[in-house]
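Holo prediction — iron/sulfur cluster.
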Amino acid sequence: MEYNEIGRTGIKVSQLCFGSLTMGPLQKNLPLREGADLIRRAAEQGVNFIDTADLYDTYPYISEVLNEYPDMIVSSKSYAYDQRTAEDTLNRSLKGIGRDYIDFFLLHEQEGSLTLKGHWEAIEYLGKCKEKGLVRGIGISTHYVAGVKAAALIPEIDIIHPIINYRGLGIVDGTLEDMEQAISLAWHNGKGIYAMKALGGGHLIPHLHKAFDYILNFPYVDSIAVGMQRIEEVETNVKIFNGKALSKEDLESLMDYKRKLFIQDWCTGCARCVRRCQQEALSIGEDQMAQVDPKKCILCGYCGTVCRELAIKVI
Ligand code: SF4
Ligand code: SF4
C-alpha cells in the first residue's frame, strides 16, 4: 500500500481510503460487528484512512476499530454553516469516534466562492479548533469545479474531497478536463486531495480497470475514497491498490453485485428529494411517487437525507 502526505498537513494517508457511507444506515446498514470487521480487515492490510460524515451515522463502526488502531486517520464532514452548527457536529464526531481530536473536518457540498462565504463562520470556528488541536485539517467536499477552484485559493482550507472519475460522472458544472485543471491548481497550491466516486457510484464497475487506472495515475490525488460494504470488496480493492492482478472470481464477485436506489411504496410524492438531487436523476412519476433514472444516479445518498418518510434506500 502506498502512502502519501496529504497536502501540507504532515499526515501520511494510505492511497486507498475506506469510504464508510456504503456500510451505514443510509445504505447497507450493516450490524455493528460486521461493519467494524470490514474496516478492521482493511486496516490489517495497511489502509489507515477512513472517510465518514455526520449524516452517515458510521461513527460506531469506526470507534470499534479505533480501539485497536488508534492512529487511524479519520475524516468527517458536516453541513455546518456557523459556529453553533460547527461546534455541534464537531463535538458529535469526537464523541462518536471516542477520541479528543479528529484528523480532518470538512464542509459538505461546497459549490463555489459564494457557498464558502456563506459558511465562513464555520470555517473560522474550525480554524480555532485546529489551533487547539481538536482538528488537524479543515476541508470541503464538492461536486463542483467552482468549489475546487474557490477552495484552492483559500489558505484556511487544507483538504479538498472532489468528485472525479474517468467519465466525469457527477461533476455538476463542467467537464472532466475542467475538474482535472481545478484539482491540479489546488494540489499545486498545497491542498490535500482525496478523490470521491472514482467508480462513479458503481456505474464504472463494468470498467473497473479503466476507472482505477485513471484515478491511480492521476498525479494530483493523494488518496482515493472507495465505498465498501462486503469483505470481497475490501480484499479486491486492496489487491488493486497493491498493484496485484484480480482473479476471475474477484471480478465476478464485483460485477455480480450492483447497488441501486429504491423508492419505497410509502413515498408521498412531496418532491423534496427531486429538488435535492444535483444530478437531475429524480422526478415525480404519473403515480405521484418519486422515480429514479438509474443512468443519472451516482448513489451519493443526498436525496435520502431529506426524505421525511424514510422512503429512499440504497441497497
Ligand atoms: S422525499 Fe421521500 S416522500 Fe418525498 S417524493 Fe422523495 S421519496 Fe417520496
Ligand atoms: S437520486 Fe439520490 S443518490 Fe442518486 S444522484 Fe440523486 S441525490 Fe444522489
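READOUT: Residues 83-97 form the longest helix (15 residues).
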